[in-house]
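Sequence in, structure out. Go.
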Amino acid sequence: MMAEDIQHNQKANFNGLTKSAKSGASKKLTIKNFKDRPELTDSYTEDTWIKLRDAVSAIQNSTSIKYNLEELYQAVENLCSYKVSPVLYKQLRQVCEDHIQAQIHQFREYPSSSLDSLSFLKRMNRCWQDHCSQTIMIRSIFLFLDRTYILQNSLLPSIWDTGLELFRTHIVSDGAVQSRTVEGILEQIERERNGETVDRSLLRSLLGMLSDLQVYKDSFEQRFLTETNRLYAAEGQRLMQERDVPEYLHHVSRRLEEENDRVISYLDQSTQKPLIATVEKQLLGEHMNAILQKGLWMLLDENRVCELTLLYELLSKVKGGLMTLLQAWRDYIKSFGGEIVSSPEKDKELVQELLDFKDKMDHVTQRCFQRNDNFINAMKEAFENFINKRPNKPAELIAKYVDSKLRAGNKEATEEELERILDKIMIIFRFIHGKDVFEAFYKKDLAKRLLVGKSASVDAEKSMLSKLKHECGAAFTSKLEGMFKDMELSKDIMIQFKQVCCYQHTVLMSSAWFPSYMMLGTDMVKLQEVCKLFYLGKHSGRKLQWQPTLGHAVLKTEFKEGKKELQVSLFQTLVLLMFNESDEYSVEEIRTATGIEDGELKRTLQSLACGKARVLNKMPRGKDVEDADRFHFNSDFTHKLFRIKINQIQMKETVEEQVSTTERVFQDRQYQIDAALVRIMKMRKTLSHNLLVSELYNQLKFPVKPADLKKRIESLIDRDYMERDKENPNQYHYVA
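Output:
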């Protein structure tokens, strides 16, 4: 129990006692005025003081007091009234000082064995507790003196403060006693840190004593912090070698909790800040880089959310901790993401891996890093950095990934899930510099989806366009939006064309585009010519171009089971129509009759004879089509549906097609660079090379190598759009 607590509890009891003493004395002595007081004589004064001194001695020796407490209080009041307060105060102080001086011997003569340190502390605590209770008792008797004479003299300490001063001067300030007391307290704290159970109430009382005596900081706190620094410096070095990072982080957290608990339990509140700073410095600050190098990547790889949260919380307490963590976090994202992007053998999974990685990093920033804006921005910078280390390819693969999600037959996601996937793709899309590469491949794939009717959802297509428009502006999506308008116009034209076909009693195809080099049947050639004349009649001055791979038809077919309608591609149509003339053909015969290219022909025959809907039989059986195979019409074909769609086996995009698309992008870039150069020079008239390049980079929306820019400048000089200064070759002039 601290001195303040003892003082408060006992003061309450004795205040009541002194009040009753006052009232009792007034009734007994009936002192109404100065004349009623006892006559002041040397004999009276001396007798009264002897009585008071005996009472004080009895209190100090814990024996019974011979006199009534009310009588003692009245005696003090009488002496004070007769102006002997200075003498009374001096005598009281001397008695108390003599008693305290006598107490020091029990501590000086105490055995110095380390085994007796705890009993020494207990004796010191008992002495302190007794002193506090005795001082409060004495003050209660001399309360009138304390509240009049002492209170009126600002240079005199109160009776309570006098007791503290005497205890500090004669006991605690003794070098040997203070040293042994402090060492004993430090020993008990060290034992507790090592896992032993100690008497916390004893420590709380002794440290409260040092605090009340105003020697806490000088005698205890400095030594305590030095020992704490030494202990945790050694512990940090040892545990960083012995334990892995997650275990070490939990140990640091536990140590900090223990030290905070010590402050609450027995240390002075003023010690908390330097104490916690010492622990954080030795366990975290000194090993911050080692912790991150040894464990951050492992924690992120294994998605250790709990430990990552703890790491963030701990490093946020250390100066420069979060900045160091931020840099390590950025380096991890660049390294891990760079491995995803720079591995051509993983191109098929690249976009999905990027999306998963982004989700994982988002989860870490939200759950572990408290949505810290600095960490979010660092993540964005890192993603932008590693994605663009492999120019153009990520943009191409993202476009193909979108195509796979928007294509009909994708049953992986509902409309809501598809919308969420598109939103995530747009986040990755923002990091790409070469957005024109994405546009080229996306436009090519969109054309296929629209022309073949393979789009999963018009709403999803328009939603994606809306996202692209919001991200890149209306100019970016104008051509894509025009494709949808063309499809609407095409539907109207086909409705009108069907009406013409019906009038001529030839309803063979719902929508078909034929190549000029194919060997079509008579009816199909007629229909192609009718379609051509119909279109050119409505749109004069245009050229009608046929796309063979995108045409499809509906054929009415009779099987033993009954009539069926087959929805097939143009190539499938040409092959199936041959079986109106004969029941069996060889591969060579079909090739000769249709003129279909060899690879396309084999894929077509595979779709008709080896797929789910086998309207043709292949001999011999097998999945692959060989030149020696023969095919005959399967009249026994059955199916539960009346209209059956037979999917053409799609040929994967060839390397040549990819190169062609990429080359178109590069060609478009050259035009944009030339236009930007001319625009800048026309406005500025004269510019140095460095300023021209700088302004050009500000205007272009795609990455360009300096060597490529130099080539475009040379090209414009050759074409007389600009010229070099005759005296300074690094300066250009616009040629009007």
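Check: The longest helix spans residues 474-503. The first strand starts at residue 552 and ends at 559.
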